[in-house]
Design goal:
Chain lengths: ~775, ~140
């Protein structure tokens, strides 16, 4: 089988042609064989017959000649007979054994092959004819065939037939060859078709020809359609590959590039033709850097520096195209340009890092805020950071809220008002006290610029004494020396109520607060200041009055001649006025001491007021030898807690006034009274005179410093006595009460709070 | 001989002024407060009034001075010297605005007072109204 199959031509055309050749040769050979056989037989029969006929023909002649014994004639006859015949010789054998023989002398035309000669020779036999005349035998005519003369033409014929057969075979083969090749050759074009397909130059009409056999035509149509579909898929794939930004290389099993899309060309900087067939490993060394063999990978990141372009970061993956055998038939290398994403990743990473750092710092700050002063020893990192920070922030916020509420409460309760200004000098905080002091509602002032606020404040001020404004204050701030206390600046508001405010301006250095304007209500202080300066001026004035007398009289004494009486009078006046001055100075000192100490130097003790009053009266010397005060002693003791000396001084002042202001005389009475004030049991020393009395407007001014009900100077006094009394009483928790009718007298009551019964010892001491 | 009216609430000072001026030979009268002083001045028409600025009562020295200067009968013939323990410039200005001819602060020198008054009186007084001048005193 196998050798036979091996002999089979491989192509369809070859096979058909071989079959045809064999068939044709067989038929021609059969024809030739049959023809040969026929010719061979016929030729031999004809030769035999011709011999028969010849012998018949010449026998009479021979017989005649033999009879007469003319052997020459016989010879000639015989020679004639063999001339141009197919006999080798004709011979006549007489009975005597003589032989007349006539051989054919000429050489045969064609030399037949030996086998044919033999074959012919074997089939021919010599023709022997008895020569009988009249019953007598004269000899035998023998005709010997020349086989070569029979085989020669046969062979010639045969050769011609062979040549014809050969010609026929050759012509037939040639004749069949062209259509066979043409019709079946379509199949051969499939190869070209495939090549064209490979090259992408597919012409769908390539296979279709008019004379294509029907069977092939449909096959080719199917093939064409399949090829067209394949082609369109390839085009699609090519367009797709061309459209995607990723570079795609198709590699063969050895790693050579067989296909590359435009992106791939661009990234390598080569034309497509320059890429094809090159080793991807050589072309893209960084991509294959670590990989020793073509083991598929995915998602490997590589930096590649294309010619004339900045480096790109590629995300590469290599996939194997596996053949059915499991061996890799090729590879697809996909490189995605992730430069931007890579940069983005880097940035993201950096940002994450920065964020983590910031978060860490924030956490530390928060921890620092949470535990101020505490050193951070615990380092907690990880996922709970954010949670911890959130917790810290909420704790801080809670604390800030508490702090905010505290501050709000402090600001709300604070008597000082202020506005803070932001960087653009617009009010960003207005304290409640500011609104209260200026009457400018917080809501209206917020977010208003300083110039407008300045205008508003100026409108509130006394026109005669306007506020200088922000600019002037800032100038002062700049000129002021470091560390020096800020200058006190007072403004007088006339609206909403009359107030004196101390204005302060401080500059902040932060964005949030550029400056703070503070207002302090110093109305009371200012009044006190004014009172003090008035007091000082009044005191000086009061001192000038006696000094005017002393100075003037002394000068008169010096420069004028005065009578001795007048001189006496001048001296008396000077003495009296000097005494007055001494009194004023002493009482001023008393008052100043009392006011300065505010009772701190009081030596408080519990004693019986009745006993004390008795003691005071015992020591008291009424002026001008007048009668001692009449006293109405109470039945029981009256314990009070007082500074003994101060109270004695107060009682003395009041008693002295009672005598002074009853210049016409009249009894001065004293008694202890009881009462309550604000639920507190009080005991009072009531001192009554029958003097000039006080009008209501005078009574209101009695405790005013230097106020004197008598302005004529006839009643000596400093005008400070009752002020001292009032101060002492108030520091002892008591109060001064006055009742008076002008012309009838005045009643002064020194009220003191009662205390629990004193111990025996202190009573004794009192 | 000039007529001098002292209006001063303090008796010691009144006496001092009197003694200072008696020496110069003036005729002197005294008043202890503004109201009395003004009333005396209107009747007596002094050549000179020594007025204490700070006096108790309804009229202080400045008011008396203003009224004197506003009185056509007095303004031309009566000179006013104010005395005050208030010696600041603005007090002096207030006194001069009220029409005073001189202002002396306390304590004062009696000699200086005497000299000032002598000087003021030495100035030629404006001619008195004819009717008044011819009327016998």
């Amino acid at each position: 089988m196998m050798p036979a199959l091996r002999l089979l031509p491989r192509t369809l055309v070859g096979r058909v042609f071989a079959l045809y050749t064999v068939t044709l040769v067989a038929f021609v050979a059969l024809g030739l064989g049959l023809f040969y056989r026929y010719q061979f037989t016929v030729e031999l029969e004809e030769a035999q017959l011709r011999a028969e006929a010849l012998s018949e023909a010449i026998v009479p002649s021979i017989s005649d000649s033999a009879v007469i014994g003319d052997y020459d004639s016989i010879r000639r006859t015989l020679q004639h007979a063999v001339y141009h015949s197919s006999f080798a010789s004709a011979s006549y054998l007489d009975l005597a054994g003589g032989v007349v023989r006539a051989p054919r002398e000429d050489a045969p035309d064609v030399a037949p092959p030996e086998w044919l000669l033999n074959s012919v020779a074997s089939r021919l036999y010599d023709t022997n004819r008895m020569i009988k005349v009249g019953g007598r035998d004269y000899g035998v005519l023998r005709l010997s065939f020349a086989p070569e003369r029979i085989a020669g033409p046969l062979w010639h014929q045969t050769r011609i037939a062979l040549a014809l057969g050969l010609l026929c075979v050759t012509g037939g083969l040639l004749l069949i060859r062209f259509p066979l090749v043409r019709w079946l050759g379509n199949l051969g074009r499939i190869q070209a078709f495939e090549q064209a397909m490979q090259n992408g130059e597919l012409d769908p009409a390539m296979l279709a020809m008019d004379d294509t056999p029907l069977e092939f035509r449909s096959t080719f149509e199917v093939l064409g359609r399949a090829a067209a579909s394949l082609q369109s898929q390839r085009v699609q794939a090519a367009v797709t590959l061309g459209a995607i930004a990723d570079s795609v290389y198709t590699l063969d099993a050895a790693g050579r590039i067989v296909l590359a899309n435009p992106a791939a060309c661009a990234i390598t900087g080569h034309e497509l033709n320059g890429l094809l067939g090159r080793s991807a490993r050589e072309l893209l060394p960084p991509v294959f850097d670590a990989a020793s063999d073509l083991t598929p990978w995915a998602g490997r990141r590589t930096t590649l520096t294309p010619p004339d372009r900045p480096p790109v970061v590629l995300d590469t993956s290599l996939s194997a195209i596996l053949a059915p055998t499991g061996e890799p038939a090729g590879y697809v290398l996909v490189c995605r340009d992730v430069t931007e994403r890579h940069a983005l990743d880097q940035r993201l990473r950096a940002e994450l890092q920065a964020r983590e750092t910031a978060l860490d710092a924030l956490r530390k700050v928060l921890e620092g805020l949470e535990h101020p002063g505490a050193l951070l020893t615990t380092e907690t990192h990880g996922g709970d950071d954010l949670q911890a920070i959130s917790a810290m922030i909420s704790r801080l916020v809670a604390r800030l809220q508490v702090r905010g509420e505290q501050l709000d409460a402090i600001f709300a309760l604070s008597a000082d008002g202020f506005i803070s200004f932001d960087a653009r000098r617009r009010a960003n905080y207005v304290s409640p006290a500011f609104a209260r002091l200026t009457g400018l509602p917080e809501a209206e002032v917020l977010a208003v610029g300083e110039s407008e606020i300045e205008a508003w404040l100026r409108a509130l001020c006394d026109e005669r004494n306007p506020w200088r404004g922000f600019d002037a204050m800032r100038r002062d701030l700049r000129q002021q020396c470091e560390g020096a206390p800020p200058r006190r600046e007072l403004i007088e508001l006339v609206r909403p109520v009359k107030r004196v405010l101390e204005v302060g301006l401080r500059e902040g250095s932060t964005e949030v607060i550029s400056q703070v304007l503070s207002l302090r209500d110093v109305t009371h202080e200012s009044e006190v200041d004014q009172m003090k300066s008035e007091f000082l001026s009044t005191a000086a004035h009061e001192l000038r009055t006696p000094m005017a007398s002393i100075f003037g009289f002394a000068e008169l004494m010096i420069h004028r001649r005065l009578s001795p009486e007048r001189q006496q009078e001048v001296l008396a006046t000077i003495h009296r006025q000097t005494q007055l001055m001494i009194n004023i100075v002493n009482e001023l000192l008393d008052l100043a001491r009392i006011e300065a100490r505010r009772g701190k130097d009081f030596e408080l003790q519990t004693l019986d007021l009745a006993a004390l009053v008795a003691e005071v009266l015992h020591d008291f010397k009424p002026p001008q030898e007048r009668a001692l005060p009449g006293i109405e002693q109470p039945a029981q003791t009256a314990p009070v807690r007082v500074d003994r000396d101060k109270l004695v001084q107060a009682i003395g002042n009041v008693l002295s006034n009672a005598y002074k202001y009853s210049p016409e005389g009249g009894a001065v009475g004293l008694r202890l009274v009881r009462g309550t004030h604000d639920g507190q049991a009080m005991v009072g020393i009531e001192i009554r005179d029958q003097g000039i009395g006080l009008a209501p407007h005078q009574m209101a001014r009695v405790s005013e410093r230097f106020y004197r009900a008598d302005a004529s100077g006839s009643i000596p006094g400093t005008g400070l006595g009752m002020s001292i009394v009032k101060e002492i009483l108030e520091l002892l928790g008591g109060r001064l009460a006055l009742a008076s009718t002008p012309g009838l007298g005045t009643t002064v009551t020194l009220w003191l709070p009662c205390v629990a019964a004193p111990s025996e010892r202190s009573m004794e001491r009192a | 001989m000039s007529k001098v009216l002292i209006v001063e609430d303090q008796s010691d000072i009144r006496r001092l002024i009197r003694w200072a001026l008696e020496f110069d030979g003036h005729e002197i009268r005294e008043a202890a407060n503004g109201e009395t002083g003004l009333a005396v001045a209107k009747v007596w028409r002094p050549d000179m009034m020594v007025l204490d600025v700070m006096m108790p009562g309804r009229l202080d020295g400045l008011q008396v001075c203003e009224q004197v200067k506003a009185d056509p009968l007095l303004s031309s013939s009566t000179r006013v010297l104010l005395l005050s323990a208030r010696t600041q410039q603005r007090d002096k200005d207030a006194g001069l605005r009220a029409g005073a001819d001189a202002y002396l602060g306390k304590p004062f020198s009696p000699l200086e007072l005497s000299a000032t008054i002598t000087r003021l009186l030495a100035r030629t007084p404006p001619p008195p109204a004819t009717g008044l001048a011819e009327r016998p005193d």
